[in-house]
Amino acid sequence: MCVYPCTPLCPPVPSSCYPSMMAALWTLFWALSVCLLGCAGLTPPQAHNLPPSVGSNSSSSSGGGGLHVDAPMALRVFSLDYHHVQAPFEIVLWIMLASLAKLGFHWSGRVPAVVPESCVLIMVGLLVGGVIYGVRHSAPPTLSADSFFLFLLPPIVLDAGYFLPGRLFFENLGTILWYAVLGTFWNVLGIGLSLYGVCLLAPSSLGDISLLHCLLFSSLIAAVDPVAVLSVFQEMQVNDQLHILVFGESLLNDAVTVVLYKLFESFLRLPSVSGLDVLLGMCRVVVVGLGGLFLGLFFGLVAALTSRFTSRAQVIAPLFVFLYSYLSYLTSEMLHLSGITAIVTCAVTMKQYVEANVSERSNTSIQYFLKMWSSVSETLIFIFLGVSTIQDVHMWSWPFVCSTLLLCLFWRTTGVLLLTSVVNKLRRNAVTFRDQFIIAYGGLRGAICFSLVFLIDDFPKKKLFITTTIVVILFTVFVQGMTIKPLVELLDVKRKKKALPTVSEEIHTRLIDHLMAGMEDVVGYWGQHFWKDKFEQFNKKYLRRFLIREDQQAHSILRVYQELERRGQRGDAEASSVVDPRPPSRPLLPEEMDSIRRILSRNLQNFNKKQTRAYSRHSLHQDVATNRARKPLHRHQSVGGRYTCNTTAPQEDDERLSDSLRGRAGLSRSHTVCTRSSRRTLSDSLASTESQTQSQPENPKPEGVDQTSSDQQHPVEKTPKKQLSFNLENENQQ
Amino acid sequence: MGSRASTLLREEEIEEIKKETGFSHSQITRLYSRFTSLDKGENGALREDQVNFRGFMRTLAHFRPVEDNEKNKNVSNTEPLNSRTNKLHFAFQLYDLDRDDKISRDELLQVLRMMVGVNISDEQLGSIADRTIQEADANGDGCISFTEFMKVLEKVDVEQKMSIRFLH
């Protein structure tokens, strides 16, 4: 692997490495596709759902195909029994294909800057699907709705929820809910009714589509898809507020979508629909949303409580996070509540307590696995979207398809404009016209609509619906996905601030928070700060005491501070010399080391005020002390000497990893790794506290990814400046 | 100046306050009733001889949201009380207890101590304070002046943070 210091805008790889890497990768990729073809050839052509829906695989029964041998006369030395392993084998091959495609995408030079990853994956899927179709002359395996909803969607949503920027989200919650609930209603009704009008206008071809069918269709096509939105928006670095609005809306509109879809579906089955049913339907929206919320809260709290006791079996602590979240999702699906809301709430709830309770390594594991699974899931979804497009079942109708497309765009735009004009009167920070345009334009549809359309009961025009859905999805992902980035630049939408937070900023911001809480109290205005304050008090008094281990309940600022110290120390480990060493009070026992690490790895979410920038799917903020800049200003001693060598190694690995990650200018996820240079100052300031002051102050690397795993979002609070020892006794007393 | 809270609010005073602070008529009357209710509580929070209504309003004026159209309307040379500079100055004065237009290390320490509580040792707090000063201090005098303070917070969206939506 070639590693080199990167700058944000230069091409990722030195040219000497490039051809060989690309060649290797593409060879592997095509070899794999050939493998898949081979497997496809082996299984007799059946239009069955892909093995991911485990258990539904019926092809293993067809032993006919050519590889069984008849009862052997003699002992065979070499035999091939494909059907024995067929299901898992094919699953693994698909996942491998997806991952290699992703790798190839990231290695492919200029492509990532222009084409979003989702588009490339869909194209790969189209290719593979086409090839399989050509070989077998029947439809390739499609994505079954069950496997999508039960296996592929939860990891993505869990990842989104776990790394949700808490403060931003709750500050904008009103607006987000406004868009999600009312906006979705507006879209569904608008599109449904207009489509019905179109059907009435073309009775010859579309006459048998009833109003309810139109409404059912519009309920699934109107909703913005979180997967698609996430994948496209991550590559654009728009300002945080805009991002959270679009993203939050796509997450929360699930409740409305689910309810409306099921409602219209059941209406279709009923002989007649009365007003009472409609009213009950409205109530169901509330029940579904709130039910999901409470379920998520419940499981989140239980998970937090469980994590309190994992100190003696730390290795399985990450498992609880996944188990409880998945359980909350499955339970709410079982009760026909909104699974997405449940899982997001669960993740948001349990996060701060789990991070406090669980060891640092477990935290890293949790985050890594989350990223990995959601990445794989998303890739698979897009590939299957491509593959499933190649089907026998298309039915085309120009008026229907085109009008659906146009209506989707039209209603979304008018909806956003209307809603924003109302909500701007109540917001502190108005949503500008440019932002509104991006919100409207960024309403991408994705795999959720696709799966939902397959679940419709069969009726004559179902194929038309499927075709239309595919067209809409492809249009939004390709056309809108590809053009939104240039549009953002053209319109000069406010971009993400790539600022390096400083200690001062943090302290002063915190002071302002306190100030505002006080002022709101004086004025008698129950604003955000007031409620935040109340929640924090409740949190401190009851929740934290109950859910977090006793020894971890130190004051948050102290923990932040110790966190910084620890970072400084880890940077210290790379240093060669110690200036002004102070004799350690006593050598640290391994348990103490562990407890130090645990305490220091606490992530501080005081007042939820930290800004998470970890939206991205691929960037995990590494626990890296990458920075080489040692400002020769300060000294720092660490009690207990260096951390052992094994912490150095991972640091360097991480550093290399983040280096190579950082190389992707304009690449989707890794870009946020680059811009996460806020950690620079953290490492800078900490490094400055290190003792290797003798080294010349090199310029810091342009992007220093220097965060601890558990600390995605906390700004530098305090850093020790002068001779300050990490005093174990001190901490023990506190 | 000089209207005591015990007397009713007179129209010309409302006008004066309006001009000075930029609040609307209804906001002023509403805040006045809030002021009197606070005062009656007599918990020492708002003693009449210490903070009269004008001062109260002037302080609150800092927290009005910044509106774009104000920039056009404001023909006078003085900045409105809720401009960014004035908001930052208000925050600055929270630190600057002795009013010498500089935040010294001790003042910073005091404020930090108040924010953090008793769980951090003096030593640690001291180094935090030192770090803060070192980041901001441009001219090396060991204190943070108002300009330096403004520079440090230039990336923070103060206009939005330090605003309360006053009800109309």
Automatic annotation (TrEMBL), chain B:
Alphabetical keyword list:
Calcium, Cell membrane, Cytoplasm, Lipoprotein, Membrane, Metal-binding, Myristate, Nucleus, Phosphoprotein, Protein transport, Repeat, Transport
> What are its GO cellular component terms?
cytoplasm; nucleus; plasma membrane
SMART domains xrefs: EFh (SM00054)
Q: Which GO terms describe its biological process?
A: protein transport
Q: Which residues form the EF-hand domain?
A: 83-118, 124-159
**Can you name this protein?**
Calcineurin-like EF-hand protein 1
Q: Which family does it belong to?
A: Belongs to the calcineurin regulatory subunit family. CHP subfamily.
Query: Where does the protein principally reside?
Result: membrane
UniProt subcellular location: Cell membrane; Cytoplasm; Nucleus
The record ties this protein, via Pfam families, to: EF-hand_7
